[in-house]
Amino acid sequence: MAFSMFLRTPACTSRLLSQHIMRLGTQPVLKPIENQRTIATINSLKNTLLKTETTPILNSVRSFRTSVVRLSSEKGSDHSKLWVVERVASALLIPLIPLALISPNKVLDSLLAILVTAHSFWGLEAIAVDYVRASIFGPVIPKVAIGLVYLISIATLGGLFYIITHDIGIANSIKQFWAIKSGQKA
């Protein structure tokens, strides 16, 4: 990490560094033949490291970050916003579940279906991304795993909406399951 941070600093790409490298290469302590080889090596190193167009290796090192600091010119997804949305959805489930059971209707059932499916999707997606890695399973199996997560989530949401629209609803279904267990009818 320290090396990648060093490569990203302005001092690494400045003229001061190249002048310092040149001074090191022209020290009189070295023998003349060694001195020429050292200067050639340092010049080739300077040309590869300090040229204006960066090499793919330096690009990959420079793009590696361990912090959440983003440059304003970078475009991409901000995972901190997704984290907040996931936490809000989880927090909304706490009052929504008892409210939907107390007052069963299609609006609360639909909201419950969407939030439960989204919560389950994020959990399954995290499992698939974390444990089904391309470095272990190859490039195809992780894509299949993510595809299965999408398929399971779509089927779950579709099934819950089917229960809401064509059957008695999610909250009434839960009440019926409880009534079966206790031996009563709802």
Question: Can you offer a commentary on this structure?
Answer:
The protein has helices at 2-8, 15-25, 32-50, 56-63, 79-102, 106-131, 134-137, 141-166, 170-182. The relative contact order is 0.06. The protein has nine helices and no strands. It is mostly helical and 186 residues long. Helix content is 74%, strand content 0%. Keywords: Electron transport, Heme, Iron, Membrane, Metal-binding, Mitochondrion, Mitochondrion inner membrane, Transit peptide, Transmembrane, Transmembrane helix, Transport, Tricarboxylic acid cycle. It is a multi-pass membrane protein.
Global morphology: elongated
Distance between the termini: 62 Å
Output the structural class.
mainly alpha
User: What integer is the average pLDDT?
Assistant: 78
Poorly predicted parts: none
Residue share in helix: over 70%
Q: Based on DSSP secondary structure assignment, what is the total number of beta strands?
A: 0
Give the H and E element order: HHHHHHHHH
- Helix count, DSSP H or I runs of 4 or more residues: 9
Largest sheet features: none
- Rg of Cα set: 30 Å
* Beta content: under 5%
Structure, briefly:
This protein has 186 residues and is mainly alpha-helical.
Features:
186 residues; mainly alpha
Helices and strands, with pairings:
Blueprint: H1 2-8, H2 15-25, H3 32-50, H4 56-63, H5 79-102, H6 106-131, H7 134-137, H8 141-166, H9 170-182
Transmembrane segments: 144-164
Protein name: Succinate dehydrogenase [ubiquinone] cytochrome b small subunit
Binding site for a ubiquinone: 131
